[in-house]
Amino acid sequence: MADPKGFMTTPRQDWPRRPVEERVKDWDEVYVPGALLPIISKQADRCMDCGIPFCHDACPLGNLIPEWNDLVSREDWRAAADRLHATNNFPEFTGRLCPAPCEAGCVLAINQPAVTIKNVECAIADRAWEDGFAPPRPPDRLSGRTVAVIGSGPTGLAAAQQLTRAGHTVAVYEKDDRIGGLMRYGIPEFKMEKHHLERRIEQMRAEGTKFRTSTAVGRDIGAAELRSRYDAVVIATGATAWRELPLPGRELSGIHQAMEYLPLANRVCEGELETSPMSAAGKHVVIVGGGDTGADCLGTAVREGAASVTQLDIYAQPGAERDEDAEPWPTYPKIYRLSAAHEEARDLQTAPAADADARLFAASTLHFTGDADGHVRSLHLTEVDAQRSPMPGTERTLPADLVLLALGFSGPDREDGLIDQLGLEMEPRGTITRDAGFATNAPGVFAAGDAARGQSLIVWAIAEGRAVAAAVDRYLTGSSRLPAPISPYDRPMTV
Ligand SMILES: Cc1cc2nc3c(=O)[nH]c(=O)nc-3n(C[C@H](O)[C@H](O)[C@H](O)COP(=O)(O)OP(=O)(O)OC[C@H]3O[C@@H](n4cnc5c(N)ncnc54)[C@H](O)[C@@H]3O)c2cc1C
Ligand code: SF4
């Protein structure tokens, strides 16, 4: 703690975002480039080094937050990068994308704005790359053991990097044409530019991890064959089986799943497509689902030039302050949050029919109607009470040429046949069953990330990848020095 009074003398200052009018004209990250480093040491100085760091416990990776806050306040960037990478393989991803449960658990947050922990993490990660503090770390010697990792999202990448560094020969199988999982084709460029992903993949290649893209295990290569070729297999295939909305009119054209829509916009940004065949340009867009995936659709539709965009949330608008009885500190509270996309919708008034930031809360879809060509033109909704029962007399109709369903995901996609070919046991809620050591019922086959935990967050995915790597290392060699930050049974403090 360079300045013991920092938390009293320095107000919280977030990484400033670019003006809305400017940023919606491009797909670059929403933040002002270069504006973080000049402010971040003073912000890190706000950390009170409070003795029992609840922030550290609230972070699924167990990031050593007070330690690197101190190092950043002293501008010791090399040591800060070492401490950060000791617990997190990909801090530039979490530094941009994590909802930061650590900040909800910050002791300062009891009665003041929390330390900008996520921004500090991002600054350390970016600075580490600039200054060459994140070189490839190939193993000193090889173990002679082989591991196949199926899926190249944050879980698979973290597992592969840990296992490669432990000396095992690792190949990552990915059914998409590019590496990254939801970070590649789900999460929009304006939340995280893909060059951050490329840089890590290059680092992993240099360490010896092999990547096999456009290869769906179960379809292009049999799961049993893969199992026989490797000493261990890690399933990190994500939870991409989306939830449906089986209402009258669902069959009309122009109603799509969010994960049908977002990948096309991402492919435009990657230069693979000139324009998206589902582009929102000139259309009235309604997004059904109030979560982050819906917000990503919102920001994407705004950038594509939609005529209007409205987001429906079935839950009532949360309050601005933490409900101390229901969600006491240091849990992650459900409060009203304004994401960058909601800020854009508010400033541009994308949905005159909705509340200020384009969200309609406590709104439930009733049905869709279309034109003579079978294309959706209207969405009919009703307001609901706290039990989600319709409130008579509150029915409304919104113009809708493009409807995006962002209702969450139920578990891993089974279409490739991987799960059935290995005869994997499944949980009633649709995820892969595993024991306390991440092992499935198939010998030598482990499961981690969204595929086994259920739809979650990148920070949990990285933590799962690190933990399953330790379990696999132990399975292959009898012991492991790899860290295991979580068990399969750990649950977030509500995020
Ligand atoms: C639109 C969207 C936005 C999100 N935004 C955020 C955010 O801002 N912050 C955050 O923390 N979390 C966010 N999430 C959640 C986060 O992306 C996931 O929790 C995380 O990516 C899960 O990682 P994973 O590696 O387990 O799975 P995934 O990222 O889903 O990766 C699984 C990979 O496995 C591949 N695969 C599947 N089956 C096979 C097979 N048979 N053979 C070969 N490969 C296969 C898939 O193609 C995919 O690439 C978002 C999710 C979505 C959908
Ligand atoms: S990974 Fe998320 S929870 Fe952990 S320190 Fe970073 S922002 Fe906080």
Number of helices: 19
Trace the largest sheet across and list its strands. Answer: 3-2-1-4-15
Whole-number tally of structural domains: 3
CATH class of the largest domain: Alpha Beta
CATH topology of the largest domain: FAD/NAD(P)-binding domain
Helicity level: 25-40%
Instruction: Report the biggest beta sheet as strand number plus sense, adding barrel if it closes.
Output: 5 strands, parallel
The CATH superfamily of the largest domain is known as FAD/NAD(P)-binding domain
**What distance separates the N and C termini?**
29 Å
What's the rounded overall pLDDT mean?
96
Radius of gyration from the alpha-carbon trace, in angstroms: 23 Å
Low-confidence stretches: none
Strand content: 5-15%
What small-molecule ligands were found? flavin-adenine dinucleotide, iron/sulfur cluster
Q: What spatial form do the alpha-carbon principal axes imply?
A: globular
**CATH level-two architecture of the largest domain:** 3-Layer(bba) Sandwich
Q: What structural class should be given to the helix and strand makeup? A: alpha/beta
Give structural notes:
By secondary structure, the chain is α/β, with parallel strands linked by helices. The chain folds into three domains: 6-130, Orthogonal Bundle (Fumarate Reductase Iron-sulfur Protein, Chain B, domain 2), CATH 1.10.1060.10; 146-241 and 410-477, 3-Layer(bba) Sandwich (FAD/NAD(P)-binding domain), CATH 3.50.50.60; 255-405, 3-Layer(bba) Sandwich (FAD/NAD(P)-binding domain). Helices cover 33% and strands 13% of the residues. The chain is built from 19 helices and 15 strands. It has helices spanning 6-9, 20-23, 37-44, 54-58, 65-73, 77-85, 91-97, 101-104, 117-130, 154-165, 182-185, 195-207, 223-229, 258-269, 292-304, 340-348, 418-422, 450-453, 458-477; strands spanning 146-150, 169-173, 210-212, 232-235, 241-242, 255-257, 284-288, 308-312, 359-360, 363-370, 376-383, 396-399, 402-405, 409-411, 445-447. Strands 3-2-1-4-15 form a five-stranded parallel beta sheet, sandwiched between helices. Helix 16 links the parallel strand 8 (308-312) and strand 9 (359-360). The longest helix has 20 residues, at 458-477. Residues 97-98, 150-156, 173-176, 181-183, 186-187, 191, 216-218, 236-238, 240, 259, 262, 292-293, 296, 416, 418, 449-451, 456-459, 461 line the site of flavin-adenine dinucleotide. The site of flavin-adenine dinucleotide (FAD) has 41 residues, from helix 10, helix 11, helix 14, helix 15 and helix 18.
